[in-house]
């Protein structure tokens, strides 16, 4: 029997944050002789992929299974933090129970813990006790899991049941138990699990953990209620499949099973898919050396002006280069950088230092932008704070032109490496050569940063937010970067290296196969057809969409024609742009979305008012209706282009029926003015009110296209650009899926069709579910077209319907992603 030793209990600790608390409890495990020091990284890694907060102020950090080799013997340590430490937003922890378990011996501790979990007074007492023996007794009491002492009255067996052995090598610990609970919750039936003489509610994690089910134990799963049979079938299948995420099989086509790397690894955030294996190389910026003072202020003022002008020229060139390689959308960041150099506040602050304090231009500039970047970084608004990276980037660009010398400027080795850096600026990233930069791993940063977006368009696998420890990896260390799961394997074994090689080859073969079949239609195995079209943002992308197998354009984001310039494009310019695209499509349809400015896309020359919540402000159709001339100009250009080929018009951000009616009336006026034929008019469904009014809207619109990026943001109330929260804004959340389901049903009633043009349309899991919900058209990024078509061709509608149905019944996005 495993018991907690009072010497492994540390009372009255304080912890700065969760990482600090985990490190402290890890140190107790080390001092108690339970683990090798390396296992502390494993505790931290687990935290990145799973939540170890149990409830009632208790968390149970434990390592990832593959690091069990670092456990010397099974043991438990407790760190008591009477003032608490923030674990997750809103969750404060007072007892940190670090677990190092070679197999399932720790289940008894978990069982006892779950008793405490159900008793807030007891949890509170243990959080503040001055006697370690109190904690020792409370967590060590009880007997072996198979004959628990904390028995409850035995409920009668329910009529329907099956007995099954738990094969999982670690028993029904927290993760598989969570999987079981998630499945149970999908059914209305009452479901119980019995182990020995105790039974618990299968929809309660605490109740299940309380049963202390070890490896090899036989349990009885019982159900009663309308869908009891279906529940038992689903549970039996899930238990037989192991309940372990790592052992999941891939969904039909498209989705790769997660790889179980053997070597010690660090979990980060997946930012760009693909695998890389090779030597690590720490990317450090060169130190720019400038003199502190200068004798001739007027010469320094001129130097500063020239350097700023020089930096603007560089940025203009960079913009053009990135635009021609990857499109205007990807290049827009460099326009934004140039915008910083128009900021008279920063420039004047530098000039004052030159004039009043005899500073050199370089020193004055460095101080001035450095201060501004510091102020930005301290902003509460995470989006604003993230802009500090951009300001530093552009600041350095000017500073380099004022440098006396640059020490150790980074030069990529001329052999391929995996770049490791604290953070990479967009400029650094755009300069990378994919032949030499095999992968990118950054300690900080988020998946929606421009760096991540550029890495994706360069096709460089990347993971971000891996933590500071990656900065300690020595240059030349052989590592493997898994951009699909966001894992950095620090000590790859021979088997890991072989896996990396095999998977890379498989992926290349698969891409090649998909590319060869990209012009075949996406017809499912049982005959249903799904249109796969492209999301584009620039005229030259229309031809690329066709080359990639696109059956048209499902979303033209016209706002990109308006960004990065000094004034709105004229009717003539817009007509040219739209006509180029219509002609490139050569008879294939294009959906032109009218201007969606506002939110994160602001256009300086439109003098838009500063808003507290721009995503809830004058955005999309609201802006167009408030500025009819802007709207009319665009509509005139669209109708002129419509004479050259099939065009559909789509309004973004429709939230009321009145908006649609007004937009349609204005569009009809313009159409008559131009003398063009009528075109189909559809709307984006991206606001919850549009979903709720879908029946009324369907009577007015010819089609719907679900903007799942925004629909998710507004449905879950999570800013889609938020560097921390946006990870949770998963468009496969059942709340979003139910909205899409409702939209499709309303459209079908009115005989209208529904497409999806948000990110989930290109997500392998999204492809199956959306198709199963009755979505007829998926509009995805150009590089995804071939893969999505191939995936659909390997799928049956029957399977898609089934998965969609089960997804709708799930309780969260993680459960949807676990469905098989
Ligand atoms: C969406 O919101 O899903 C969408 C496709 O529009 P955008 O990403 O341009 O806001
Ligand atoms: Mg949108």
From TrEMBL:
Q: Which Pfam families match?
A: PEP-utilisers_N, PEP-utilizers, PEP-utilizers_C, PTS-HPr, PTS_EIIA_2
Map out region (Disordered) in residue numbers. Answer: 136-158
Domain named HPr is located at 159-246
Supply one GO CC term from the record: cytoplasm
Question: Which function does this protein serve?
Answer: The phosphoenolpyruvate-dependent sugar phosphotransferase system (sugar PTS), a major carbohydrate active transport system, catalyzes the phosphorylation of incoming sugar substrates concomitantly with their translocation across the cell membrane. The enzyme II FruAB PTS system is involved in fructose transport.
What is stated as this protein's family in its record? Belongs to the PEP-utilizing enzyme family.
Name of this chain's protein: Multiphosphoryl transfer protein
């Amino acid at each position: 029997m495993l018991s907690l030793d009072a010497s492994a209990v540390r009372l009255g600790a304080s912890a700065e944050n969760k990482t600090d608390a985990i490190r402290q409890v890890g140190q107790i495990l080390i001092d108690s002789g339970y683990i090798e020091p390396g296992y502390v990284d494993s505790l931290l890694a687990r935290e990145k992929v799973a939540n170890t907060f149990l409830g009632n102020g208790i968390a149970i950090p434990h390592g990832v299974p593959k690091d069990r080799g670092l456990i010397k013997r099974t043991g438990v340590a407790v760190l008591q933090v009477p003032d608490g430490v923030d674990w997750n937003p809103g969750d404060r922890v007072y007892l940190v129970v670090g677990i190092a378990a070679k197999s399932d011996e720790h289940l008894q501790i978990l069982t006892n813990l779950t008793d405490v979990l159900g008793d807030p007074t007891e949890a509170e007492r243990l959080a503040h006790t001055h006697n370690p023996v109190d904690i020792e007794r409370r967590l060590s009491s009880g007997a072996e899991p198979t004959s628990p002492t904390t028995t409850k009255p035995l409920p009668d067996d329910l009529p329907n049941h099956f007995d099954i052995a738990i094969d999982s090598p670690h028993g029904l610990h927290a993760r598989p138990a969570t999987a079981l609970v998630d499945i149970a919750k999908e059914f209305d039936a009452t479901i119980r699990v019995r182990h020995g003489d105790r039974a618990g509610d299968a929809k309660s994690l605490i109740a299940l953990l309380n049963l202390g089910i070890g490896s090899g134990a036989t349990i009885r799963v019982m159900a009663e209620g309308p869908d009891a049979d279906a529940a038992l079938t689903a549970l039996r299948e899930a238990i037989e499949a192991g309940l372990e995420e790592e052992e999941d099989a891939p969904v039909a086509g498209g989705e790769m099973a997660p790889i179980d790397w053997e070597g010690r690894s660090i979990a980060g955030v997946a930012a760009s898919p693909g695998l890389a294996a090779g030597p690590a190389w720490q990317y450090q910026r060169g130190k720019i050396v400038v003199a502190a003072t200068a004798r001739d202020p007027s010469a320094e003022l001129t130097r500063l002006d020239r350097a700023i002008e020089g930096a603007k020229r560089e940025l203009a060139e960079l913009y053009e280069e990135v635009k021609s390689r990857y499109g205007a959308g990807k290049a827009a960041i460099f326009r934004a950088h140039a915008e910083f150099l128009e900021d008279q506040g920063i420039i004047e602050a530098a000039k004052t230092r030159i004039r009043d304090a005899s500073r050199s231009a370089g020193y004055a500039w460095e101080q001035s932008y450095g201060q501004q970047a510091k102020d930005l970084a301290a902003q509460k608004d995470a989006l604003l704070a993230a802009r500090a990276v951009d300001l530093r980037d552009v600041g350095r660009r000017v500073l380099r032109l004022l440098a006396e010398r640059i020490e150790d400027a980074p030069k990529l080795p001329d052999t391929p490496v995996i770049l490791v850096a604290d953070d990479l600026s967009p400029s650094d990233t755009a300069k990378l050569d994919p032949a030499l930069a095999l992968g990118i791993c950054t300690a900080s940063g988020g998946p929606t940063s421009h760096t991540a977006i550029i890495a994706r368009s360069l096709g460089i696998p990347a993971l971000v937010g891996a933590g500071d420890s990656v900065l300690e990896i020595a240059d030349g260390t052989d590592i493997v970067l898994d951009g699909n799961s966001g894992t950095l394997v620090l000590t790859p074994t021979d088997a890991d290296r072989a896996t990396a090689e095999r998977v890379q080859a498989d992926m290349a073969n698969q891409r090649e196969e998909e590319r060869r079949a990209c012009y075949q239609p996406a017809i499912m195995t049982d005959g249903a057809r799904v249109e796969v079209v492209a999301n584009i943002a620039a005229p030259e992308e229309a031809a690329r969409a066709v080359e990639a197998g696109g059956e048209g354009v499902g979303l033209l984001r016209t706002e990109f024609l308006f960004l990065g310039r000094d004034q709105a494009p004229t009717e003539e310019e817009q007509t040219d742009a739209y006509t180029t695209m219509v002609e490139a499509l050569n008879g294939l349809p294009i959906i032109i979305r009218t201007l969606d400015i506002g939110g994160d896309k602001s256009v300086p020359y439109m003098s838009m008012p500063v808003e507290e919540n721009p995503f809830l402000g004058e955005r999309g159709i609201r802006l167009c209706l408030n500025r009819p001339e802007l709207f009319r100009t665009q509509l005139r250009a669209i109708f002129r282009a419509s004479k050259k080929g099939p065009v559909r018009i789509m309004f973004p951000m429709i939230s009321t029926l009145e908006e649609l009616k007004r937009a349609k009336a204005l569009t009809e006026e313009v159409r008559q003015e131009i003398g063009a034929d009528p075109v189909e008019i559809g709307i984006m469904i991206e606001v919850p009110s549009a979903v709720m009014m879908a029946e009324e809207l369907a009577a007015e619109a010819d089609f719907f296209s679900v903007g799942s990026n925004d629909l998710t943001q507004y449905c879950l109330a999570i800013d889609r650009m938020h560097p921390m929260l946006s990870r949770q804004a998963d468009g496969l959340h059942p709340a979003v899926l139910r909205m899409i389901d409702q939209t499709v049903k309303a459209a079908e009633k009115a005989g209208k069709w529904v497409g999806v043009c948000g990110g989930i349309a290109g997500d392998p899991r999204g492809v199956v579910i959306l198709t199963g919900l009755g979505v007829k058209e998926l509009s995805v990024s150009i590089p995804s077209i071939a893969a999505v078509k191939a995936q659909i061709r390997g799928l049956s509608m029957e399977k898609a319907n089934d998965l969609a149905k089960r997804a709708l019944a799930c309780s969260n996005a993680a459960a949807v992603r676990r469905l098989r």
